[in-house]
Amino acid sequence: MNWKPKAQLTEQETSKSLRMILYDGLTSEALVCLSSGAVLVAIALSLGASNFEIGLLSAFPTLCNVAQIITILVLRKFPYRKLFTLLAVFLSRLPLIAVGLVMWFGESRTVSLLLLAIFVHYFFGSMGGAGWNSWVKDIVPEKGLGTYFGKRSRYMQIVNICLSLLVAFLIDYVQDNFPDKLQLLYAIYLALAGFIGVMGTLILSQAFETKVMMSQENIFHLLSQPLKNLNFRRLLWFNGFWSFSINLATPFFTVFMLQILGLSMVFVIILSVITQLFSVLTIRYWGNLSDRYSNKSIIFLSAPIYIACLLGWIFVGIYSKNFLNMGLLVLLHIVTGISTSGINLALTNIGLKLAPKQDAVIYISVKNIITSIFSALAPIIGGMMADIFLNRDLRITFEWLSPDFYKEIKLIYLHDWNFLFLIASGLSLFSLRFLAIVEENGEVSHYLVRKVLKTRFRQRMKDNIIIGNIGHVHDQIKAIVKRNENLSDPPIP
Predict the structure, then answer these.
(1) Are strands 393-401 and 406-415 parallel, antiparallel or unpaired?
(2) 277 domain residue, yes or no
(3) Burial 164-194 (b: 16+ CB within 10 A, else e)
(4) Residue 147 lies in a domain
(5) Could you confirm whether the keyword Transmembrane appears in this record (predicted)?
(6) Which long-range contacts (CB under 8 A, 24 or more apart) does 452-460 make?
């Protein structure tokens, strides 16, 4: 295995590296399915976690991004991005194996151990992520960023969908038939996630690395460079405000569905699978648009759709008929999958695109650190706000009252978490003002892109409906004439 960086990669080495990065993404997604999201919340609840502890689990992924400062310090002295990344990623996956084994064999099954393991997991994962971003940036051709990462995300989401369904059915089966073995199943999930992650590290080690010369200036001066870059600073403002806005509400969707709506874990996971499925179906489309137009225009197209989904959550649970609430949940998860695939892809690409090549790790790390601060504060503040709104309701209804008939229709019913969803949607919409002043090379106005997409959609509809029918007019007329001839023939005696 070659650990020495190369001045330039051959076409064959680049191709192999791209394959290894893709395979590593699949193992990483499997790890995520087994040890995060709704599954992690379920594990924490089974161990008796409080709402505050669940909030901490939600904050760890972003809070630990501050550890990327360590990545900068190390890579300045030892610019071996591949070696450092692999070591950090390997160390991040060991705690999952450890906590899984303790839950299996040990007597201590407290949530404190889970919190510690997850914190260490995200801490080292954040360090490795910073090195990974800089490493991969020099391998993937800039012109194909959208297409490649769109393909990678699509395959990762396919893995997410298939594995999440399996995880959901296993939880349902064990909970219904062997409820006393449920924690044992969770232990297997955590240990298996760590093992798959280690295998992914070995796969990633086969990718090649190019040489990089990092600035040797004072660390504080280096960290201030992205802040002095006016355009990148504008991007930081948008990233920070957007992350704060959406994380004010999104970490509590699972809690809302489990505690307020009383849904089963299986149904919650199936809803997340629906989101991933529609994300898979549209990620390639967003990637092509990103390469053809600009990342900024993609965000302007997809962000309002996501904001509408946030707003739609305030209507969940207000209907008396259960199937209406379930239908609304399914619709929200479908549209969320479509919109987030475009947002996440464009946010990743625009950050890589605006970061100078020499100090890419510095710029990306500062971006991730600032974003993590806003993202970590959001669920903490959101939890405090939810406590404030706990015993407060806002109801707007439509009533019809007559001597023989009475009907009340709930237009808006805000309570508990719903207040957060409304506030988050408003702040998210406001954050787009910061994106408007960011400049991107090759930028295309989102108004123009929207107009082009509308024109294409109308043209396709016209071709399929009108022109397609015209193409069959001859056959239709011929059939009518033949039918009339048969009707005009005299009856046979």
Answers:
(1) antiparallel
(2) yes
(3) bbebbeebbebbeeeeeeebebbbbbbbbbb
(4) yes
(5) yes
(6) 453/301
- 248-280 b/e (C-beta count within 10 Å ≥ 16 → b): bbbbbbbbbbbeeeebebbebbbbbbbbbbbbb
Residue 457 belongs to a domain: no
Question: In which domain, by residue range, is 86 found?
Answer: 11-393+412-444
Cβ neighbours, 10 Å, residue 140: 18
The DSSP code for 143 is: G
Spell out the per-residue pLDDT of the chain, length 493, in tens.
566 777 677 778 888 888 888 899 899 999 998 988 888 888 887 888 776 777 788 888 878 877 877 887 888 788 788 888 999 999 999 999 999 998 888 655 678 889 999 999 999 998 888 788 778 877 877 777 777 877 888 888 788 888 888 888 898 888 888 888 888 899 999 999 999 999 999 998 888 887 766 656 666 777 787 888 888 888 888 888 888 988 888 877 887 887 778 787 778 888 888 887 888 788 878 877 777 777 788 888 888 999 999 888 888 877 667 788 888 999 999 999 999 888 888 887 888 777 776 667 678 778 877 888 888 888 878 877 777 777 777 766 777 777 777 776 666 666 667 788 888 889 988 988 888 878 776 655 555 655 655 565 555 555 554 444 444 544 544 454 454 445 444 444 3
Give CA separation, 315 vs 149, 261, 264, 325, 411, in Å.
34, 12, 20, 8, 8
Neighbours of 359 (CB within 10 A): 21
Q: Is residue 10 helix, strand or coil?
A: coil
- Tokens 């719903």: give the residue: 418
Expressed in percent and rounded to 5, the helix, strand and coil fractions of the chain are 80, 5, 15
**Beta-bridge mates of residue 406:** 401
Record the tokens describing residue 150, joined without a space: 């769109």
Q: What's the total number of domains in the chain?
A: 1
Helix residue ranges per DSSP H, 293-413: 295-312, 322-354, 360-388
CA distance 75 to 58: 29
Q: CA-to-CA distance for 460 and 456, rounded, in angstroms? A: 6
CA geometry: angle 46, 95, 26, nearest 5 deg: 90
Structure tokens at 368: 């991730």
| Eight-state DSSP code of residue 355 | S
What are the DSSP calls for 35-104, one per residue?
Answer: HSHHHHHHHHHHTT--HHHHHHHHHHHHHGGGGHHHHHHHHHHS--HHHHHHHHHHHHHHHHHHHHHHHH
CATH at residue 322:
1.20.1250.20
Domain membership of residue 468 (yes or no) is: no
